[in-house]
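Quick entry between incubations.
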Amino acid sequence: MDRNELRRLQDERLRETVERVYFNVPYYRHKMQEAGLGPEKIQTVSDLTRLPFTTKNDLRDNYPFGLFAVPMSEIVRLHVSSGTTGKPTVVGYTRSDIATWSEVMARTLTCAGADRNDFIQIAYGYGLFTGGLGLHYGGEKIGASVIPISGGNTTRQIQLMRDFGTTVLACTPSYALFLAEAIEESGIDRGSIKLKAGVFGAEPWTENMRRAIEEKLRIKAIDIYGLSEVIGPGVASECMIQKGLHINEDHFYPEIIDPDSLEVLPEGTHGELVFTTITKEGLPLIRYRTRDLTRLTYEKCECGRTLVRMDKCLDRSDDMLIIRGVNLFPSQIETVILEMSEIEPHYRIIVDRINNLDTVELQVEIDEEFFQDKISQLQALRGKLQDNLESATGLTIKVTLVEPKTIERSEGKSRRVIDNRKF
Amino acid sequence: MIIHQLSVFLENRTGRLTEVLEVLGHENIRITALSVADTSEFGILRLIVSDPEKAKDVLKQQLFTVNITEVISVMAPDEARYYAKVLKILSDIDISVEYTYAFTTGKKSVIILRCSNNDKAIKALKEHEMELLRASDLYKI
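Done. Structure below.
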């Protein structure tokens, strides 16, 4: 599509979206009224800068359905991702949103060279996480044969991959590497595996990791990008040229801002990615701050697509960690610790990648008053803490009890996290 | 008949046990018995020392996590059947032994026991004419 034509489409869709949120979402109406803006004041995407930002905290404050722009009877699906504390982030889709999502995911898979003749093995988790079902609907939309195996169970993944002749693999890049090494170790003849491409996302990964996956699996490894608040996977994806991710900007309008001054930055400058959804009905978001750091280029791609491209996201402007594709905020862990009197609120989070899988260890000080002399009591404490962490974060976190006053006291939360992974 | 045992929480870190012993050595505190209960993640060091209150204070000053735990001690010939007999006396009256350790001195062995009910245990062992040690006896060994 010609960029001028695209711009007109974005303007029109933005006007509809602004009108929709002004009349249907009290939160946005109040914010716009405070800024002295009626919906008629926003005519084109260049007027966007007049509108306030939306953050993950705004979603939390309006938990669960406060920002939805349609009655619940119109919502056909709910997905959930991590919130910064206690409450998760809830996203709702109308039937038309699901159609939009399927469309952008179909584009993602087409970008990776997939079509109706392919077998797509979806090893992203199914469930509240958007990864599994997002890929699933896109795969069905292009008419491919979808294998909804979900995450884990490596032996079975490899077996079906061989027996069904899987051609496209969808999972997190770290799991792809894990699978590749499992295949190597099992001594299976690579000729019996028909994989040609992989669509990998939900966590940051380096070019080195891409080369390792491509060599070991002998495939083209395509980076995909998305976040549940905006829609899930399908926000952007690489094409076979692998020079940046094409953003589906006819649905999600991107801006790059300076995370400190909040000013919009010119093309090519690194900053925080912000999205305004311009077709969503269930949960339209105005200038949603993703906290992902990247830059944009509007140059036409060698593949022929005119859609704006973003660089691979490797950094964030907040302290969120991505563990095996799951978002984790240190504040979620802190909330659990503060609720337990047997331990001191002094902790250290150590993140590592061992055999290509992310691990999280929580070191926490025991309370001196609590210490008796029984192993069983300490083990019960560890077990309880581990269980509470798992239900709060969805992750298995290894708990190590340490002696009181041994963890360095520091002001900033970020110093409590030691991330030994290399991106 | 109650013995004051020192319990020290040890995180799984090289040299931590050495540090405890160095602190005690520096204060000329003597150790009669020592046992370490460990898991893969952490351990508890249990000590019978010549001056438990002082030992507790100096370790606390050095930021160790310390507690005093009450245990009992029996002296018996160093044969397995006597150890078994002690345990049987306790299990017969439903007293559970949370942990036990022992050391020998000449032909005798000294058994340390942490029981679910120390007073009841002392009474039962006395009734069976077992030789219970006082703290003052034990510290002198």
